[in-house]
Amino acid sequence: MDDVNEGGDTKAAEDFPATARTTLRRLPKRGSFERETVYGILDEGFVCHVGFVLEGQPFVIPTAYGRKGDVLYLHGARASRMQKALAAGADVCVTVTLVDGLVLARSAFHHSINYRSVVVFGRARVVEEEAEKAAALEAFTEHVMPGRWADVRWPTAQELAATTVLAIRLTEASAKIRTGPPVDDEEDYQLPVWAGVLPLSVEPGRPVADPRLPAETEPPAYVERFDLKQRH
User: What residue ranges in the chain does DSSP mark as E strands?
Assistant: First the structure.
């Protein structure tokens, strides 16, 4: 597992370098290369979009992911087009976006969204070593619901064989963030139109039991007390 930073504080504290692909051309003041900021957004999200080109055709595939140290893990069926393309060495672009609010301006032109996003560039390697593969699958599970891995049945050898796990070293990444109120043209501030931000957030509801679950089986504490922003 040479690609995994297992708790090294020095490396984790370093910012990502600005590259030709990650440097923001538009509104660069919203950009960040801070590793802590990038990892915070990745850790809060659930779904990433994976972009790649296969035989001249671009594809963008939504999928789940997990992070362990400085490695982003993707997984899927061996027959997956995305898995095959990335395993063959295709360049990949992975994005995650969190929507924090709707920005309602006085003019239609200046409406916007408050968001936090991350873009990652790189190439994936296939995880072959069984221990790292199991650790990656644990990372997927714990990314969604911390504490879950200890309760569930772990993957069998057959399930592991049917799954391709890909690792992308987090070396080229940046974040882009918009916060705050709308920014209108100066002359529009006198218009009698309400303007501001409508905050949005993902909030967990009450757990809904599987219909085949025995009635006396209670949800575990980590489900009852699930906090989206405290998962990592």
Answer: 31-32, 47-54, 57-64, 66-68, 71-77, 91-104, 112-126, 163-169, 172-178, 196-199
State if pTM tops 0.85.
Answer: yes
* Domains of the chain, earliest start first: 9-99+113-181 (2.30.110.10)
DSSP 16: P
Share of the chain above pLDDT 70, in %: 94
Residues in CB range of 178: below 8 A, 6 or more apart: 30, 103, 112, 113, 114, 115
Confidence of residue 11 (pLDDT cuts 50, 70, 90): very low
How many C-beta neighbours within 10 Å does residue 168 have?
25
Distance CA 229, CA 232 (A): 8
Collapsing DSSP to helix, strand or coil, 147 comes out as: coil
Residue 96: both structure tokens together: 């995650």
pLDDT tens for residues 65-112?
999 999 999 998 877 889 999 999 999 999 999 999 999 999 999 999
| Tokens coding 182 | 């709308």
Residue in 116, 102, 112 with CA at minimum distance from that of residue 200:
102
Yes or no: say if 39 and 114 are a contact pair by the CB < 8 Å rule.
Answer: no
Considering just the CA atoms, what is the radius of gyration of the chain in Å? 21
